[in-house]
Amino acid sequence: MSLSPLLLVLTIIFVFLAIMGEADSPSYIQYTTVTGFFLQDVPSTDAANFDYTAENFGLIDRPYDTDDEYDPKAEKTQWQRFDHQVFRYNRQSGRNVQYKVIFMGRHGEGYHNVAESFYGTPAWNCYWSEKDGNGTVTWADAHITEAGVKQAQKANAFWAKELAEQKVPAPERYYTSPLDRCLSTANITFSGLSLPSRRPFVPEVKELLREAIGIHTCDRRSSKTYIHDTYPTYTFEAGFAEDDPLWKPDLRETDPATEARLKNLLDDVFSHDDSTYISFTSHSGAIAAALRAIGHRPFGLVTGSVIPILIKAETVQGSPPSTSIPASTGAPSCTANPTPVSAS
Predict the structure, then answer these.
(1) Of residues 17 and 298, which shows the higher confidence score?
(2) From the candidates 162, 211, 253, 259, which is the catalytic residue?
(3) Which of 107, 112, 143, 296 is flagged as catalytic?
(4) How do strand 97-106 and strand 27-33 relate by DSSP bridges?
(5) Which pLDDT belongs to residue 40?
């Protein structure tokens, strides 16, 4: 039975008002890690000894619910079948739910990593991290070492192999921290790959994707002009400032504050980027914070490593749970002489 014109108009108005009311009501995004697909999600996987290049990015060799419809002759690769499973998740989810796969890559070894190893973490945190360098090596906005370059080249070679042999989906969007060690790592990792024409390597520099902010000069970014001149093909998010607006010489961001910042970054990406496959080039602390924000188990990445994570994001009506974020802190006091004889 057809609706009368008046009833049809009233129905349309009701639906419109309901949608507008929902849009005006408070909401937040709730993240969960979808487990069962990657070794890095499994509690028994040892992060310290995990080699993503030996483990197909950690993708577990297993059947999927969609195999019978998508690959009845068992001709597809594990990554192709996984990609179809993710596609099915997104297609069958409601409009408030989405799934993304984020490749989280840590930068290659930087000069600050070498300095911290040399001086030790206590001396680094209480003294050396506040310096631009030691007279021999500079680590302000730390660049990657030769070892770091090789780690990024290893990632490049592995991506090339995976794209050709495993048909791994190439990232649709690339985001990078504004710190030089990430800008350089991303450039070496993804340049020269046989990427689909619709998925070129044109990274966007995101302010919030950086390492914990403050005191450590290695985490003070260079100017926008420097980044543009050094990496001219990179783009910047809207409102990216010329000079670092966040770093302070006497205050260090706390872990909960870093997690809240990375949650804000994820909210931005999930709200404005329709891509399913995304690359982050970031830092150990920032990646750890992002993993906490999505409910993933702790999984420390060695320099130059990459792990993909399947993330479910659901927009929930109502106000988000309240959180308490500790204020930034000053540098710890040295309990011993931080300057070894060889450095004096």
Answers:
(1) 298
(2) 211
(3) 107
(4) unpaired
(5) 98
Residues 181 and 110: beta-carbon distance below 8 Å: yes
For residue 217, give the 3-state DSSP assignment.
Answer: helix
Residues 6+ apart with CB under 8 A from 98: 90, 270, 312, 313
Query: What would the mean pLDDT of 192-213 be, rounded to a whole number?
Result: 96
Give the DSSP H/E element, type plus range, for residue 111.
helix 111-119
- Residue 144 binned pLDDT confidence (cut-offs 50, 70, 90): very high
What percent helix, strand, coil does the chain show, rounded to 5?
40, 15, 45
Tokens (6 digits) for 261: 């910042």
Q: Two tokens at 47?
A: 């992060």
Q: What pTM did the predictor assign?
A: 0.91
Active site residue 107: yes
Task: Evaluate whether 144 touches 106 at the Cβ level (below 8 Å).
Answer: no
123: tokens are 């001396």
**How far, in whole angstroms, is CA 267 from its chain's centroid?**
12
- The position carrying tokens 């988000």 is 320
Q: What is the pLDDT of residue 25?
A: 85
In angstroms, rounded to a whole number, what is the distance separating the alpha carbons of residues 210 and 62?
Answer: 35
Quote the pLDDT of residue 264: 97
